Amino acid sequence: MLIIGGGLAGFALHHLGLPASLLLGPMAVAMCMGIMGTRVRVSPMFFRSGQGVVGLMVAKSVTLGVLLALSKDWHLMLLVTALTILLSAGVGLCLALARIPANAAAWGTAPGAASAMIAMGEEHGADGRLVACMQYMRVVCVVMLGAWIAHLFAATAHHATSATLAPPFTWLGFMITLALALLGACSGSLIPAGALLTPIILGSALQLAGWLDITLNDTLMALAYGAIGSYIGLRFDRATIMRVAGMIPTLVIANIALVLLCACLAWPLSYLFGKDFLSVFLATSPGGLDAMAIIAVETGADASFVVALQTMRLIGIVLAGKLFAQLTMTLAARLSSAARDQ
Questions:
Q1: In terms of Cα–Cα distance, which of 208, 214, 184 is closest to 290?
Q2: Are 288 and 143 in contact (CB under 8 A)?
Q3: Can you list the alpha helix ranges (DSSP code H) found in the chain?
Q4: How large is the average pLDDT for residues 227-234?
Q5: What's the gap between Cα 291 and its chain centre?
Q6: Nearby residues of 83 by Cβ (< 8 Å), 6 or more positions away
Q7: Which end of the chain is less packed: N or C, by CB atoms within 10 Å?
Q8: pLDDT, average across residues 71-82
Q9: pTM for the predicted model, two decimal places
Q10: Does CATH place domain 2-341 in 1.20.1530?
Q11: 164-181 burial, b for 16+ CB within 10 Å, e for fewer?
Q12: Domain spans, the chain
């Protein structure tokens, strides 16, 4: 049901011209199956391998000119990273004031890799199940809204799997590419977002040095998208939904508000960077790095810029996440106390 249903759903969305359809279709089917109580699970190794393939897809678009262009905007990228983190912290504070546990609200809205934020939240005493639900609910909201906005701003989706990744195909390049994806998958349990970042860094370096021609095909990309979408969707099991049922409307509204705030932020930043709105929007959106990279490549946005900004934000939240979580909890406690006194 997951494979056939997810494949058919992805094909139907692809036929409608929706970006990242092969990710959204399996994710929607997996969510329905998870809520209905299925025991089917996607292995984390398959999920991380899918991320590795997506990382190599992004690495294929990295050139020396792209790196030089990104290096000129590092100060602006640092500013955008700080603004996005502050927006997420503000939404987390609002959720904490809405009777959601402050530590879970802080880590659940942190705009980093979902798996890393869940682990860090549990380490600091937050409810891991609630943090996981908030993180993956945000990913779903951002991916769906991001794909819709991308559909509005990209007249024609440029499907990388068929346009830019197929030629030239060589078995040697394909096997080396698979090996890099598996290496990234293995590093995913050691480094935050390592499953995605390791292939991007190694693939880009080897390609720029002229030692590797990254080789991918449609079938491999479809499997990678399906593995990522299915893994995310199946995280919404019945027990988790029952645990947070009363909070779902608040969480959905908060996530939609966060996406719209990022869209508003992207308008002036697109002029500041001299880039198109879609690229800046995907770069600032607090969704999964892998999902934003997929949408960026398929819509013809600047994937290197998107990944660079998302990576900088990930590093920032990993380094300063504990501080922001503590500030959110402190402010929430003070505001709640002030409200009670009044």
A1: 184
A2: yes
A3: 2-15, 21-35, 44-59, 64-72, 74-97, 102-108, 114-123, 128-153, 160-163, 171-187, 194-208, 218-234, 238-244, 248-273, 277-284, 289-299, 303-341
A4: 89
A5: 4
A6: 265, 284
A7: C
A8: 81
A9: 0.74
A10: yes
A11: ebeeeeeeeebebbbebb
A12: 2-341
Q: pLDDT tens digits for 6-55?
A: 999 999 988 887 777 888 899 899 999 998 989 888 998 998 999 899 88
d(CA 149, CA 296): 12
Alpha carbon separation from 185 to 115, 171, 219 (Å, rounded):
13, 21, 19
Tens of pLDDT, residue by residue over 81-109, are 888 888 888 888 888 887 788 888 888 88
Q: How many CB atoms lie within 10 A of CB 64?
A: 9
Place of tokens 């990744």: 165
Task: Give 283-294 pLDDT, tens digit per residue.
Answer: 888 776 777 888
Name the nearest CA neighbour of 23 among 118, 122, 146, 116. 146
